[in-house]
Amino acid sequence: MPVRSHACLPALLGTTAFLLAGVASAAQVNVTVTLRHLAPANSVSFAATHLGFHNGTFDAFNNGQVATAPIISVAEAGNGNAWRQAFSMTQPSATVGTIAGQLRPGDVRSSTFLVDTATNPFFTFASMVIPSNDFFIGNDSPTQYRLFDDAGNLLITSISQTASQIWDAGSEAFDTAAAAFIVGSVGANRTPQNGVVGFNFSELSGFNGLVTGAGYTFQNALLADTGIYQIEFATTPIPIPAPIGLLAAGLVAMGVVARRRAGTAGAR
Ligand SMILES: [Ca+2]
Ligand SMILES: [Ca+2]
Q1: Burial classification of residue 214, based on how many CB atoms lie within 10 Å of its CB (0-12 exposed, 13-18 middle, 19 or more buried)
Q2: Which one of 79, 102, 245, 268 has the fewest CB atoms closer than 10 angstroms to its CB?
Q3: What pLDDT score does 138 carry?
Q4: How far is the CA of 79 from the centre of ligand 1 (A)?
C-alpha cells in the first residue's frame, strides 16, 4: 500500500506546484506609489495625480502638437476624467487610477495599486500644476518609464520632475481671473489659446503676489533645475491565498512523511 501512495506523490506535488504557479505567476505585485511635493514653499502645488500601469500604447499628448480632450481634462480641470477614460479605452487591461487631493508644499501622499508586471510594465502619469490655466506635468512618451523587467523586477524606484519639465497645454490663454487655485478667480472660465503643447514655467511669474487656495501668497521662485515633484515606487508580493498555502503545506508534509516511511522501509 505505501508504494501506491508514493506513486501518487509526485503527481500531487506537481499539481500543487502548478496551482502555486497559477497564483504567483500571474506576475502580480502591489505597487505603492508615493508622491512628494518638492517645490519651494510658496511656489507651485499640484492637483490630483492620474496614473496608469500599461503596455506602452497610451499616449495622451505630444510636444509641439495641439492638446486633445484627455490631456486638457488634466491641464485645465485637474480632474483627469477624460484622460483616465481614454487610457482605459486604449488598453482595457491597464491599471489606471488617481491619487486624489492636492499636493501642496510639504505634502506626501501614497496609494497602492495591484499591477500585472508582465502585461503592464510601463508607467505614465499626469497632474495639473497649480496655480495655472493649463499647465501640467507628465510623460510625453508612453515608453519613457519602464518600471518592470521581464522577470518582474522593479527597474525604477523614483521619478523626479524639475521646473523645466512643466508643460503648457497651449489650450487656454494665461488669465489670472480664470486660473485654478487663485482666490477670487473663476477656474471654469477660459479663453482659447489655440496653441500647442510646450515647456513653460516662466509664465507662472504672472501669478506672483496672488493668494492661492492653500492660503499662501504665490511666488514662482522656480529655476529650470528646481525640483518640484517626485514619485517613488515600492513593491510587495501578493500573499498566497490561505487555502492554497495550507494545501501546499499539507502536501509537503505528506511528502516528508512518505519519504521517512520509504527510508524506514529501505533500512529494513
Ligand atoms: Ca506623446
Ligand atoms: Ca496656456
Answers
A1: middle
A2: 268
A3: 98
A4: 20
